[in-house]
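**User:** Once you have settled down, spend some time on the protein underneath, comparing sequence with structure tokens, and judge whether sequence predicts the tokens.
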Amino acid sequence: MRIKIEQGGVRIFRYDFDSYTLYEIKKRNVYSVKIRVILKEQVDGAVLQLSAPKAFRRFPYYCRTAALNREGAYILEPSDKPIAVIKGDCAVRLGTEETNGLFFAVTYENNSIFFSFAHNFCGACGAMRWIKATLWQYLTDRGYAVDRAGIMTTDTPITAEEQAEPDVASLPVGNALGKLHFTRDSFVPMDDYIARMRDPNGIDGYYPVRISKNTLMKYAHDNDGSPNSILAAVLFKMCVKAVPDGRKFTVGITNNYRADVGCPDTYRDMVRQMYVQYEIGMKDWSIEKLSTVTRSRMYIQMQPEISWDKCRAVAELRRQIDLQPDIESKVDYAAANSLTTNGLPSSFHISYVGKVEWGGLGPFIDGVYTVTFAHLMFEVNATDEDFCISFQTVRRDDKYLKEFLQVLDEEKIPYSVGALEDRKLPEIILPPFD
């Protein structure tokens, strides 16, 4: 699909909004996402095989495959093939015959359903609509009466708002009030990455951690915080314990800027990173004080002017990709100039999906965990009762986890934690070079 957007007579980008990340994916598979939903009962595979395709058809903007056109550009084409539903927790190959060429797939094992997808279409926020629709259809087909309020079912109309993309030409121009200047000398766990690369038995894994939602929200309220600021402060304390010779630590916190650019209800993934840097001299500060500083620095970075600049930078990157003469050049340019992987090197990251309204699905769900391609990454999701944290690591020992739990113990925040699990992230396969 070719998109024509004009700004002062200059075409901003030529192709489908969701296609541009494919170039970078061709170079490195960093946009795989998998969301695990744990149900309170065993999954009925025969029912899921019928329910998942019915629900997926509600989202035609996900029912697309990739192709390479004669101009050496990636395009997305509509597909009427069903979403693949595969038994077993496995690393599926998105974009291949295994998944009918689609970049979405469903797998299942015991009482878990795994939703795998490529990040170029959506993030966890957008995917939650598909996930909730699938769960509703599955439970309904199982014979349960599930309230459909807040859930997109097969007969829910598709709106322009849910498919919206930013109109870059209409964005205001303004200067943010106050800016933070970040240095690039924080601790980065490079030794852990190198050790993982050298270890044939290494694991790309996550520890499933649960903290009561009521407990953490009360703690945040009592300590001048939000879930993001409290977890950032706790992770700083964790790093000080795990890396006592470190002098500075940077946390990257995901910020969703869809509303800032006029697309609050879109399925599309529009996020940027906020950063908070901590000095070793802050190691004895209370969580409350660290949270207050964290929130103030987040507030400065939540100005819409920053989002407008980010959106314009994305549009310019895409315009430059279009100017490259062939697929090899487009791939090289996209990877070398990535606005995602070329950001500030951080010690650890937090990505918080935010409040998910499970509605009638709530009583059936025991846990929800998001896993991505990252290390020392806190992917935070939630059920009605718990915050479900994927403590992502490339280490097979419990370094970082042990120190994180020590901080929770010191703060008297109760938790539960499971054994290290392999992420088994999907692999994204794209059409080959000509």
